[in-house]
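Collaborator request, handled under Task 6.
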Amino acid sequence: MVGQRQRVAIVTGSESGIGRATAVALARQGFDVGITWYREESAAEETAAEVRGLGRRAEVRHLDLTRLPGAADVVDALADALGGVDVLVNDAGTGHSTPLLDLDLDTWREVMATDLDGAFLCLQRAARRMITAGRGGRIVNITSVHEHQPRVGAAAYCAAKGGLDLLTKVAALELAEHGITVNAVAPGEIATPMTGQEDEDPTAPGHERQGVPLRRPGDAREVAAVVAFLASPAAAYVTGASWAVDGGMLQMGPMAGSHLTTDDWRRP
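Structure tokens returned to the collaborator:
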């Protein structure tokens, strides 16, 4: 629009899965989008092509959150290229399935650096720019249902996501006076490459999940829709919250688990 600055969103880890779906959802909402990739630049360019196909600008940069603190420079680089930052979505992450007693320090540090340290530094960079611009902003951290509930074999992942949950809450308190909201979105099992499902249709036959009340994995676009809401004016009074997108799994408490193979839990 003439005379108005275009809104800008930066989405880390947006070469595929939830990150790509979020970048596209925000483009549909009118944002130019900063896109980052870790392994596949061509995949990030595909995300950028989808954003540009919606009439929005897209910039692509490499991001390796094990190379800290310098990796967080990507926030400033994308903000400079696109003219600011109004929304940051911290989606870049990793995880390992290793029993606690077999978990080595290097693996622990890799997960913590990527899922917690990197998210902190990117959040800090974006928040500083938002405060300087004086227009407020939105920060959304993609956590996991395992910020709320532990999982055997995921000590580093659970510790990082639990830490990111409390970082979200502290940031929400400290940044509120600047008009910046900070929230978390906590997905359950989502059909993405990270879960070995290559962005498959989770409603297709063969994807039944007896341990999920809605009986299936989620779709990345279902997570992206919640992120897009939190980035919108409609969510201006929402901050410090964690939004589970998990098909109801957390409501099962101790009964929950992807190990379930029957619907017996549904009957008292």
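The cover message to the collaborator said: "The first helix runs from residue 17 to 28. The mean pLDDT is 91. Please let us know whether this matches your experimental observations."
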